[in-house]
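For concreteness, we quote verbatim a single protein encoded this way:
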Amino acid sequence: MAGNRKNDRAARQFAGAFAESLAESLIQAIGGPWRFTVQDSPDLATRQEHVVHFKLTLAGGLHGQCFVEFIEPQIVEVTSKLLGQPKSAFSDEHSQALAKVISSAMAGVSASLSGDFGELTFQVDRTEGLAFGGMFVVPLAVAEGEPADMAVMLYFDGELLAGLSSKAPDEDVVEVEEPRVNPANFKLVMDVELNVSLRFGQRQMPLREVLELASGSVIELDRQVSDPVELLLDGKVIARGEAVIVDGNYGLRVTEIPQPISSHFIH
């Protein structure tokens, strides 16, 4: 029983990262308040429509396969907007368009899971004739699209589930973290201007030395000349790089992003 709970938590962690990243990719591609949420249990008996499967093959810090199952009307609903075409009968063009969106979402999944599993790579392929007996299933409810009451299914093979479970906590109850900012709302503030600053270094000084400062005083900072300069937003380091001169002004050539900048807002 404990093993099943651990597998469930591990699969839901992956499903949550996939759901958030897929929603962001759809918003960037076609707009609209797309959202996928992890559900408790699948209702496979109600899936009467023709299904289409995409295979996610993982390498790097994780190995194995996850299969994403859509029904044809869902794909037509999404990709008709993406292709700028009226809704029509499902075709390979719809499938290829959705495969590109899924592929673009994998970068976000990799960034979300890299802290636990290291660098991940994904290959996305359309696949047919699958038998899912014994696979672990996690459903995602769709908050936009038609039919809205039909879930997207994720099927995990044994190798991937074992890799995910190896890093899952042992506590009996672990809630799947939901993004604190809805990606649809996040898009609305993209034009808000923020103040960022460069930090070349810092130094702690007693009050006596501060009062003794005068013109010509030299303060030694805690950073070597060869060390990168830090770019700060609200006191948090969001990038590092090299100081440059641009049209007579200081600038920064970014060489390192410690973590996805969007995570500073969503989390």
